[in-house]
């Protein structure tokens, strides 16, 4: 598995145009208006569609989709940056890396990227905006366990910014756009779909894995760049690819995790992680059948740490944790990610499956000792 060395809201007219174009495109596919069998005469096909003849030029619906995509790309590109980072290493003395990132707060100069792009809090970072201007950046904080870093450039210099979207609203098939600088090609745009959720590709040094998988193209140099939805909102941070070269699978840290980590790094220059106090395990199909659960999901509690928040709230060995604060828990890795990115001291509702029925417990999370 190889790494990829890589807020003002979108206005409603822009968002509506993208959504409308997408719906028109889907409708066109459903009614077969974007193609005809080569063996069928043009006149018969035209008659079937209720038009006198095939006109030359782009189909209006396809042109609307193309125009909306280009407008979305321009908006996102204006807030995307290129990184050049130099850091000291024990083996080589100094090493250099490149990557991507995006402006989250143009007033304060807050830029988000991957930890492996900057290499740590002591890195010397140069940030190039999309308009070509370059600034020295200060690493405000970095978190190797989620591979996220926050860099600050001079206040007020960035002209555009992006906002977080809701990665929990994604489903496989959702359209996305990846932006970054793969293989040194600055300002590269690629579109695709969400291929899968809650992926754990076992990347080195990353403790909390709960990645989005997508098929929009990224490569070395794309890391840290934004993965956005069709409203131009950041729903992931592009982080890795499967293998050493592009094979059709990219991975992004979901915004549900990244937004909390970034906020903690800005406020504390470190990450304060929530602590529950259970040892979670996957729920297999046989596990679900044995306890009367309709399908295999959630996280099975293998053990509860004595005197932990989970113990004090009444969680037991054998419980299956189904959701936290109303958000379904897909797996043991998903539970770790959700708990760790919730601030310590937060009171959360934990829905569990016990004795073949659901029940809800209230838990006040502690702070995980690093």
Question: Gist?
Answer:
The protein is α+β, with helices and mostly antiparallel strands.
Task: Furnish the topology, listing elements before pairings.
Layout: E1 2-3, H1 12-30, H2 42-49, H3 60-77, E2 80-89, E3 93-105, E4 110-113, H4 115-118, E5 124-128, E6 134-143, E7 148-152, E8 175-180, E9 188-199, E10 211-214, E11 226-228, E12 234-241, E13 250-254, H5 255-268, E14 274-275, E15 278-281, H6 285-291, E16 299-304, H7 309-313, E17 320-324, E18 327-328, H8 332-340, E19 347-354, E20 357-364, E21 366-367
Antiparallel strand pairs: 1-12, 2-3, 2-5, 3-4, 4-7, 5-6, 6-7, 8-9, 8-11, 9-10, 10-13, 11-12, 12-13, 14-21, 15-16, 16-17, 17-18, 17-19, 19-20
Question: What key phrases describe this protein's structure?
Answer:
single chain, 370 residues, alpha+beta, Thrombin, subunit H, Pdz3 Domain, 2 domains, six-stranded antiparallel β-barrel, 8 helices, 34% strand
């Amino acid at each position: 598995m190889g790494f990829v060395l890589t807020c003002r809201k979108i206005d409603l007219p822009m968002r509506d145009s993208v959504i409308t174009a997408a719906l028109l495109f889907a409708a066109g596919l459903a009614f077969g208006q974007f193609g005809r069998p080569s063996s069928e005469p043009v006149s018969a096909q035209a008659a079937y569609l209720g038009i006198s003849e095939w006109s030359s030029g782009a189909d209006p619906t396809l042109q609307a989709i193309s125009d909306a995509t280009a407008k979305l790309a321009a908006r996102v590109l204006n807030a995307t940056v290129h990184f050049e980072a130099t850091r000291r290493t024990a083996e080589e003395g100094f090493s250099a890396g490149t990557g991507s990132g995006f402006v989250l707060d143009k007033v304060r100069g807050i830029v988000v990227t991957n930890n492996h792009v900057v290499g740590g809090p002591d890195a010397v970072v140069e940030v190039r905006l999309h308009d070509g201007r370059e600034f020295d950046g200060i690493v405000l904080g970095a978190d190797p366990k989620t591979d996220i870093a926050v860099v600050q450039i001079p206040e007020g210099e960035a002209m555009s910014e992006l906002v977080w979207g809701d990665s929990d609203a994604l489903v496989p098939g959702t359209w996305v756009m990846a932006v970054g600088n793969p293989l040194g090609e600055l300002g590269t745009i690629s579109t695709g779909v969400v291929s899968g959720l809650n992926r754990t590709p076992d990347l080195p040094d990353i403790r909390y894995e709960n990645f989005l998988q997508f098929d929009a193209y990224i490569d070395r140099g794309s890391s840290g760049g934004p993965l956005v939805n069709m409203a131009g909102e950041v729903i992931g941070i592009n982080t890795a690819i499967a293998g050493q070269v592009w094979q059709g699978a990219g991975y992004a840290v979901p915004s549900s995790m990244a937004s909390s980590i970034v906020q903690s790094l800005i406020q504390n220059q470190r990450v304060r992680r929530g602590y529950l106090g259970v040892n979670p395990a996957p729920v297999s199909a046989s596990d679900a059948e044995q306890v009367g659960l309709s399908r295999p999901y959630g996280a099975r509690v293998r053990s509860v740490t004595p005197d932990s928040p989970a113990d004090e709230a009444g969680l037991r060995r054998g419980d299956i944790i189904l959701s936290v604060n109303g958000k379904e828990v897909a797996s043991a890795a998903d539970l770790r990610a959700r708990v760790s990115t919730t601030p310590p001291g937060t009171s959360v509702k934990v829905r569990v499956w016990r004795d073949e029925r659901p029940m809800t417990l209230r838990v006040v999370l502690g702070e995980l000792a690093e």
